[in-house]
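Example for tutorial group B:
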């Protein structure tokens, strides 16, 4: 298929004073982009992903691009946190794994040129620090006009 879509992650109420950023690339060959120092406001990360494969061949869409991580059946996006995002004046060193699950071809077909696929995830974890590991429970992705 090869079309591009816009995805957006809204990080809700992250703890203040920590840098959060979107991981571009994987393994040892990556950089953290869209770095943002958290305050009391939500943080937003917006980026492009490509759709690969054809809906007539596959039940669920598969994504590709600089920000997409993991194998086809278990794709996700990383948010780097604290020292993982290049911040030197913090003891936080975490990554947040946001799954790309639950997205269907029907939802993607409903996207217009001006709409995006968005998710909201908590920015603070149960321990009071930055949320990390795989988001649970994950409420999924939805179309935002």
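The residue assignment follows.
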């Amino acid at each position: 298929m090869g079309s591009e879509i816009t995805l957006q992650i809204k990080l809700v109420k992250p703890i203040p004073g920590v840098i959060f950023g979107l991981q571009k690339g994987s393994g040892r060959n990556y950089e953290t982009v869209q770095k943002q120092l958290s305050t009391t406001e939500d943080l937003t990360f917006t980026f492009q992903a490509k759709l690969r494969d054809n809906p007539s061949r596959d039940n669920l869409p598969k994504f590709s691009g600089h920000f997409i991580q993991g194998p086809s059946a278990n794709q996700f996006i990383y948010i780097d946190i604290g020292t993982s995002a290049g911040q030197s004046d913090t003891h936080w060193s975490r990554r947040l794994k946001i799954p790309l699950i639950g997205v269907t071809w029907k939802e993607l077909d409903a996207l217009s040129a001006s709409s995006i696929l968005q998710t909201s995830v908590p920015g603070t974890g149960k321990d009071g620090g930055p949320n990390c590991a795989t988001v649970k429970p994950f409420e999924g992705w939805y179309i935002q006009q």
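The first strand starts at residue 4 and ends at 12. Compare this with the pattern of hydrophobic and polar residues in the output above.
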